[in-house]
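Posting here for the record, re: magnesium ion.
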Amino acid sequence: MTTTPTATPKTEAPKVAKAANPKHAKRDESTPILRVDDLAVSFDNAKGPRIQAVDGVRMSIYPRQTLAVVGESGCGKSVTAMSALRLVPMPPGRIDRGAIHFDHQGKMIDLVKIPDPEMRKVRGGEIAMIFQEPMTSLNPVYTVGDQIVEAITLHQNVRTAEAYALAARAMTDVGIPDPESRLKAYPHQFSGGMRQRVMIAMALACEPTLLLADEPTTALDVTIQAQILELLNELQNTRQMAIMLITHDLGVVAENADVVCVMYAGRVVEYANVFELFSNPLHPYTRGLFASIPKMHGRLKRLITISQVVDNPEEFKKLPGADRGIRPWWPWHEPPKDLKPKPGPAGDYYLQEVKPDHWVGVWRTGAVEDHESRAPDLQYRVDDDPDKPTSLKPTSPAAG
Ligand SMILES: Nc1ncnc2c1ncn2[C@@H]1O[C@H](COP(=O)(O)OP(=O)(O)OP(=O)(O)O)[C@@H](O)[C@H]1O
Ligand SMILES: [Mg+2]
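Prediction output follows.
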């Protein structure tokens, strides 16, 4: 049996290939690269009603921006990202409604509607995805070199020898030593963490303008995780690459996100820039999420759980506009008595800008209909913020 040499983590900063592709021509950073508009995706469930995995999701991502998508397991994060590449299996999946607008070299196209040949050009070449499960995107019967080279030659106008050189450089960038010989190995000859890095190398080798990174660093130790995140950050600056970063790790969010989208049960419950979200979480679910993080300071006999926060009715009365009848949407509550649903799906819910640049999922009561505003859309980037705070300390409901 072939043994896989363990990788020696590289600690120095990775080198990034200089962008030469015309798709990386300087972009207008005030136009979103991706805008998800009222997306709903459901799955056939033979035993009962369809599973509504995503139900009215809205979000925007701008060039050179990281939008972190967080939320508990099963809330629809991966399905949202996979819908952008039309990789949701259909059937059992189905896109019920909505649009996913993508800036395809200056022209807005709807990824839900474009024909398959056009989608194939976008997929991998302009939008790349790092999958949650590395083995799902690696073919076990081809060497990783052949797979990376195929992806490169499909989307870039280069000869095979040049593609091998690009593949080797991409492997080096993600910290895989001796790339020339490792390119000849098969996926099963890599450890789980190395496979994840191969997948990241494959995604980045095509120089995407948008990267959908679904738990990109979960199988990696902290040194490699930091190196990969640093590499992504560098690519954002050199190529204006935008990133949708799906993660459960709020530390990774704090360090890397510009804007944060919190999801629950297929809907967006909160959306704000990273500093605003951490310092002033407004939906009880987000407050619960932050309260459950262990803290270095202070003494607590037991950690606070999310349910301790969301089970407290007082937490639902703290929203700006609560006095006017604006209530956080929560699927486990009876809808409020003054609910004025719109006809059609998800008519009971609205993503309301409860204060400037800060959105919360609320019940669509009369108060909301009077104050409808724009869809969540933030150009905010931490690097450009002249007033950026020096640290992020989540506010716990216990403290706040
Ligand atoms: N192929 C499928 N067939 C049936 N149901 C599916 C399929 N893929 C996803 N779902 C359902 O859609 C919902 C959302 O799944 P999704 O994978 O987006 O969750 P997630 O937020 O990415 O969770 P995790 O953090 O565990 O990765 C879940 O209820 C899941 O069971
Ligand atoms: Mg997932």
